[in-house]
Structures are given as structure tokens and as C-alpha cells.
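In response to the reviewer comment on reproducibility (Comment 2.3), we provide here a single inverse folding case reported in full, input and output, so that an independent group could reproduce the run without further information from us. The C-alpha cells appear first.
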């Protein structure tokens, strides 16, 4: 695609950026009743997010990215909006088409639309983490500023939208909102990656089965039956999503996934490793020994923080969690496992692991903060 077309800028794009700024200010001000510290924190998060947005946009001009492909297709391939309707990649076309063809927002301006949606996900996460800490400051909040976490949540594509959807779902579940508030995040997750909705629903089912003592056995049976019916109903869409029509088809897809590379071209072969090694590699690599470009080095630095977070969670796993937080704690833990284990098993290298890690960020942060601030041992020491 002509780079000139990707670098166009108009008054409409300027309006988008001004609306972005207004949105940031409005969201930041929602933390003012708590403390000015958290207004500043969200402002810093927004600055990192915007800087990463511009950086990713510039990077996409010099390398082949999904964002360029999405923009090219809605601009040149599809003749009408209904042609884009569908699940998975088609859903991204459907969200991008009206921005480009009806509102005439450029490639640059479209980046900021998706970037703001991703930023809204951080707003939901911060609201949850603040409640867990009792609205007190902790230096652990700085993990929200890690640039590589923002890198995958600013671009035109699935990652920014599903990050928002999962963050919103976690927020609704944590604050026990009415069922109607779950419709948007569930639809969003399902339309983008139906298998992730499948895994999150499975995590919810495990949580209810093992932890909900208020439900009688009969109600538990009905709930499990309802969840099973729902999962069975979703399963055909999941099979269609991965094109699981025969053994060769799924093996070919696994090989294709295995050949995907990290930004910058890094690839780590895991085909002969066991599931435990694959899982740790999926979540925590690349390390410095794997890095050979600036992206991998930046990811390696942040992965050290991920390892530190994991160690803190494991160290406290035997601590008893305050009763009011047990459900969200184990829902987060089950969600992390149900999302990452299949990915770790299917991916033969780390090609897409880094970007898919964004789907567990909300759950990992909740797990960490509950471990740190809502165990009975911590409360007794206070």
C-alpha cells in the first residue's frame, strides 16, 4: 500500500485527537474524589498509551502489520458495510469500515479510535485494583505503565478490542453488576475470539462448581447444565473459527501458528518441549538470551516483572484469601489457566504469545493484588 495514503491527516483526525484528550481528562477526573495521586497515575497511563500508539503507528509504516491489512481491505476490497459482517477478523472489518468510509477517518485517526478503546480497558482495571487495595497507594500500580503491555492494546485490530472486553467483563464480575451489563463484553469477546469466551465461561463454571457454597446442590446442577448447554452451543462456532474439519486441517493451523513471529522476527521453537515448559515460555519469554532486537529486549525487561509478579502470587498461594474475594481470586486463576494452557499447547513457538498475553492481564493483576492485599495473613499483620 502507498505510504502516502497511510500518512494522510485531516481536520477530522485532529478532531479525533481532541476528543481523545477530552476522554482522557474525563476518565482521569473520575479518580479525583479518591486522591489526586490516582488522577496523576491515570494521566501517566494515558501518556504511555498515547506515546505507544504513535510509536506503533510509525512502526506499521515500515513493516507489514495486521492494521495495514485491515485498513486496505475496508478501503479497497469491501463495497458495503454488510459485506464485512461476521466473526473474528470480519468483526474488525465491520468496526473499521464505518470509520473509514462513512466518517472518513484516516489510517492515523483510526489508530486513535482503537487506542482509546484499549485505554478504557486500563480504566476498568485500575478501578478494580483500587478497590482491592482499599483505595491506598502501592508501588505495584506502576506495573500499569509497562510499555509492552500497551503496545498490543493500541493498534487497529482484535487485541485492543478484546482487551477492553475482558477488562470490562472482569470489572462487572468484580463489582457484581446486574446481568444486563455483561451483554456488551460477552458479545465483544465472542465476536472477536469465540474460543476465549468459551474458556472464560469454563473458568466461571469451575468457580461456581468448587467455591459457591451458597448454591444448593440442585441449583449447582442446574447451573452446570445451563453452562454445559451454552458451551455446547458455542462449540460449533469454535470449531468453525479454527476450521477444525479434519485432522490435517487443525495440524496445518497449528503449524501456521507456530510459524508466526514476534515483532521484529524473533522465533523460539517449542515443538519438542513438554506442556509445563511451553506454558512458562508462553507466559514469561522471551528472556534476554532470546532477544536479538529492541522489541525482544523491551519484552525481556517486562517479562522479569511478570516473573516477579508470578513469584509473589506463588509465595502467597497457601495464604487464605478473605472470603469476599475468594470467588474473584479463583475466577481469575481459572481464567488464566483456561486461556493460556490451550495456547501454550497449540503454539510451537512464541509468535503470537506476546500479543495474546494481553487477554490475561486483567486476571493476572487481580490475582496479584488480591494475593498481596486480601489474604487473611496480611489483614492480621495490619
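Designed residues, in position order:
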Amino acid at each position: 500500500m502507498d505510504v502516502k495514503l497511510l500518512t494522510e491527516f485531516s481536520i477530522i483526525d485532529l478532531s479525533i485527537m481532541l476528543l481523545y484528550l477530552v476522554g482522557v481528562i474525563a476518565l482521569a477526573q473520575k479518580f479525583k474524589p479518591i486522591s489526586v495521586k490516582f488522577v496523576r497515575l491515570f494521566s501517566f497511563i494515558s501518556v504511555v498509551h498515547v506515546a505507544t500508539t504513535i510509536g506503533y503507528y510509525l512502526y506499521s509504516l515500515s513493516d507489514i502489520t495486521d492494521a495495514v491489512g485491515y485498513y486496505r481491505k475496508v478501503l479497497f476490497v469491501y463495497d458495503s458495510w454488510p459485506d464485512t459482517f461476521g466473526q473474528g477478523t470480519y468483526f474488525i472489518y465491520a468496526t473499521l469500515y464505518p470509520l473509514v468510509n462513512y466518517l472518513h477517518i484516516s489510517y492515523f485517526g483510526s489508530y486513535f479510535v482503537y487506542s482509546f478503546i484499549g485505554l478504557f480497558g486500563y480504566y476498568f482495571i485500575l478501578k478494580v485494583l483500587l478497590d482491592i487495595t482499599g483505595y491506598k497507594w502501592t508501588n505495584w500500580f506502576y506495573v500499569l505503565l509497562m510499555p509492552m503491555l500497551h503496545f498490543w492494546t493500541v493498534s487497529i485490530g482484535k487485541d485492543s478490542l478484546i482487551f477492553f472486553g475482558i477488562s470490562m467483563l472482569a470489572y462487572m464480575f468484580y463489582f457484581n453488576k446486574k446481568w444486563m451489563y455483561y451483554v456488551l463484553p460477552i458479545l465483544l469477546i465472542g465476536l472477536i475470539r469465540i474460543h476465549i469466551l468459551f474458556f472464560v465461561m469454563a473458568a466461571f463454571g469451575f468457580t461456581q462448581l468448587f467455591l459457591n457454597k451458597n448454591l444448593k446442590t440442585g441449583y449447582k446442577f442446574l447451573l452446570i447444565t445451563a453452562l454445559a448447554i451454552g458451551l455446547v452451543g458455542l462449540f460449533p462456532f469454535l470449531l468453525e473459527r479454527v476450521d477444525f474439519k479434519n485432522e490435517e486441517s487443525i495440524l496445518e493451523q497449528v503449524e501456521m501458528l507456530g510459524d508466526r513471529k514476534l515483532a521484529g522476527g524473533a522465533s523460539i521453537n517449542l515443538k519438542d518441549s513438554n506442556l509445563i515448559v511451553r506454558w512458562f515460555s508462553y507466559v514469561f519469554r522471551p528472556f534476554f538470551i532470546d532477544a536479538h532486537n529492541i522489541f525482544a529486549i523491551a519484552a525481556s525487561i517486562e517479562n522479569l516483572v511478570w516473573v516477579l509478579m508470578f513469584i509473589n502470587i506463588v509465595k502467597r498461594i497457601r495464604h487464605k484469601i478473605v472470603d469476599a474475594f475468594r470467588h474473584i481470586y479463583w475466577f481469575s486463576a481459572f481464567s488464566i489457566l483456561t486461556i493460556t494452557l490451550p495456547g501454550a499447547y497449540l503454539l510451537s513457538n512464541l509468535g503470537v504469545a506476546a500479543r495474546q498475553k494481553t487477554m490475561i492481564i486483567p486476571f493476572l493483576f487481580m490475582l496479584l493484588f488480591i494475593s498481596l492485599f486480601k489474604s487473611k495473613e496480611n489483614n492480621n499483620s495490619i
